[in-house]
Model the fold of this input.
Amino acid sequence: MPEVLKAPLVVEFPFTRSLGPVQSAFLSGLRERVVLGVRTGDGRVLVPPVEYDPVTSEELGELVEVALTGTVTTWAWNHEPRRGQPLDRPFAWVLVRLDGADTALLHALDAPDGPDSVRTGMRVRVRWAEDRSGAVTDIACFEPYEAGQAAAAHAPTVHDGRFADPVTGIVAPARLDYTYAPGRAQSAHLHALAERRVVGERCPSCRKVYVPPRGACPTCGVATSERVEVGPRGTVTTYCIVNIKAKNLDIEVPYVYAHIALDGADLALHGRIGGIPYDQVRMGLRVEPVWPDGGGHPDHYRPTGEPDADYETYKELL
Amino acid sequence: MPAPMPTSGAAPRSVPRPLRDIAVVAFAQTDHLRTSDELSEVEMLMPVLHRVLAQTGLRTGDIGFTCSGSSDYLAGRAFSFTMALDGVGAWPPISESHVEMDGAWALYEAWTKLLTGDADTALVYAYGKSSPGSVRDVLTRQLDPYYLAPLWPDSVALAALQAQALIDAGDTDEPALAAVASRNRASAAGNPHAQLRGPVPQGDYVVRPLRIGDCPPVGDGAAAVVLAAGERARDLCERPAWIRGIDHRVEAHGLGVRDLTDSPSARLAAERAGAFERPVDTAELHAPFSSQEVVLRKALRLDDRVHVNPSGGALAAHPIMAAGLIRIGEAAERIRRGDSDRALAHATSGPCLQQNLVAVLEGDPR
Done:
């Protein structure tokens, strides 16, 4: 069996999310160096505040301002910070109950003296980020604040939650890195493409040949393993005309994207049709692959010049 | 002050029997491996589907309902569950559903489908390939996107916060956590499918107080179960594992709202599944971190008379999205073999045991 292929795959996307009134006030407040909580029907103050009571599901809206100092309720020492985390040097993850709040907020604690300097019950205070945009990361982290012991004295004060130019949404970028491995059947298919051959796999039960192969016959639910070289010529079974230019794609519109049944295959694959005006492409057109330099998937398919295939020969592949 | 989750008092109410007797009649799983580069998801899953069907003699066309659990985020492959369906043989079209959750929740959906009488048999499967990505980071994407996800708190960090809370509360300490880890992996010595079998050094801290040994192995795997109702179950299996009750409950997503040393959702699910009506002899707990077994033993009232995780549990093999379904399968398998008469199976989802499912399985009297 040929070597299994692998390639890096980065999945990266910005999530744009709108905020409810409570979240908007909280994040706008962080931008203005104010921490708000929300009071529940039974008088508890939730920080960070939520739109609905997590126990009763009652809608919440009574905002209060809490202190910028608080108490660690639990912690965990992170000696190897990971991408995206609040600090790039070793730090403690902490849940902090701010003075005046009844619940705790997750964040990082900058503790330059190491894990032995951190304990549950220790006093901490907010360290603000220099650039604040209305996000939980406007709190850069917490820092030790052993001077301020008067936790019990702080009573939250009512806040109207109004700020000039309130934040109404966040954009949360996300990036995940993978090593993509396509598996046995697709690795073999890709290896063959590198040699300008198109190789599918035959189902041992229904005898259909799948190109590209995915390792299983979707009809019979059994492994395909018998390799079958198909094409290179094939027949356009159906097609569409693309009129909108895709971003980052260097192909002039309009162009034709088609289903192509390669000779010997029982499933059509997709490809672009070139070498012929877009309005002359038709069902039954006979085509062949045009290979890119250096191997890989065909760049496109072009007419062979043969007579069109009879409809009866490909109607089952539509 | 943690948010209280309503539960009834100490005396468990009597839980009515399900409308239909439904049982696990077959179970199969892959060997769970650190990587499975040479196999696509369907290539990994398909042998398990074939084995579980072969145990019952059923073919795809005989199955009334099919339900699966998986997550595209794990391997970064969009719509991987539709590709996985190739392994079922979904033609002529089958009655099918999918949950972006552990397969235990797919089993719950299948169980409700059978309860309605719409189907008499169900195939449930789940798979996860964690090897292509960085699962600690991938799991941050399931968190609250406003207050948590922007901080990228990884799955070990969140479990470590819970472990420290348990230590502070006097519920455990590092040696006790190490003992949980080593007991599970010693049990796994008898489980040919487990990824970690026998002694594993506790090693260094990953996120203190959790050490390497307190964390589940990262790996790839799949599992499948067949459910059947009534007499059909007895036809298909010599000793079906009857689902006497099954329930799942979820807690608030805010970690700072919860009491991390307890699991009121697991307790409530267990109560509603009838787990407290009579003692169980076996429990398969989906506790990916050693500290979470401490929480679950307390919430589920499991004492030393209960054989906990004879399979080695999630500390021995943790194919994400399948590890909960495997707990149900392992419990059912022990009933089928006559090693258990009444077993509890548990599955979890979300950070720090946020959501919990409990099933109570029983064999026919011997």
